[in-house]
Amino acid sequence: MCFGIPRLTVALARLNDPTLRTRPVAVAFSHTSHSIIHEVSPEAAEAGVIPGLRTDRARQRCPSLRLVPPNPTHVARAHHALLPLIQSVAPAWESLRPGHFYLDLTGTTRLFGTTCETTMRLERNVTSRLGLHAVAGIGTNKLVAQMASSILTPPQLCDVRPGFEQDFLSPLPVSALPEIRDPEGAALRTCLADLNLQTIGDVSDVSLEALEAVCGRWGHRLYQWARGIDSLPVLAPQT
User: Fold this and answer.
1) DSSP secondary-structure letter at 234?
2) Strands, E, within 22-114: which ranges?
3) Which one of 1, 105, 190, 228 has the fewest CB atoms closer than 10 angstroms to its CB?
């Protein structure tokens, strides 16, 4: 399972100030015109405000935008408040980033019920105890679970059943793949755009030999990702 609180800083700001709950909100270090937006609420995103935009441009696109400063202390507290709830259901878990986790629930069915039941119960506990709304993706591996959680808005759950990984991934944009979004994936993004490979399904139609010839070290990984294959385990914190 990939479980997390989307837009954690915005969610915490709205928890502390209920007047922000229906307004477009963006996180920026300062209110100066050259400050950069780091996180946005869904309402701000609908108005065209995106992370990386300068605050002056953001206000032009969304005059009613409210800017809030990042609060690392509140984020750290929220992350640590989630840990007991995560540990109560997952024998193995890995922190992806603040407020987001991978959980390996293998072997817990007799204790807690199906993975879907455990996930829904965890979501309810987080909402009732912390006032935060989560999303959760369930899959046979970390890649599929994370991709499933990335298409949701709180509070939602997406369960990708075994054998349907490739069918689920095919219509999603290639840019949604986690490692391609990272800075080191910039060259690969350019390469895939030049080849007009826009969806994961487009990539799955390309042979392994062609992907390796064009994308180098990324070729084999892309071939596997496009088929929903990911062998990376959930790593315990001490690992």
Assistant:
1) P
2) 25-28, 37-40, 66-68, 92-97, 100-104
3) 190
Residue range 129-140: average pLDDT? Answer: 96
The secondary element (H helix, E strand) that includes residue 209 is helix 208-215
Q: DSSP 3-state assignment of 109?
A: helix
Instruction: Give CA–CA dist 126/184, Å, rounded.
Output: 34
pTM for this entry: 0.89
Tokens encoding 97: 């980033």
Residue of 150, 147, 161 lying closest to 225 (CA atoms): 147
Give residue-wise pLDDT tens across range 209-229.
Answer: 999 999 888 999 999 999 999
Neighbour-count burial for 136-153, b at 16+ CB within 10 Å, e otherwise? bbbbbbbbbbbbbbbebe
51-72 pLDDT per residue, tens: 999 999 999 999 999 999 999 9
Residue 109 pLDDT more than 80?
Answer: yes
Write down the residue that tokens 């991978």 correspond to: 102
E strands, 66-177, in order: 66-68, 92-97, 100-104, 135-138, 156-159
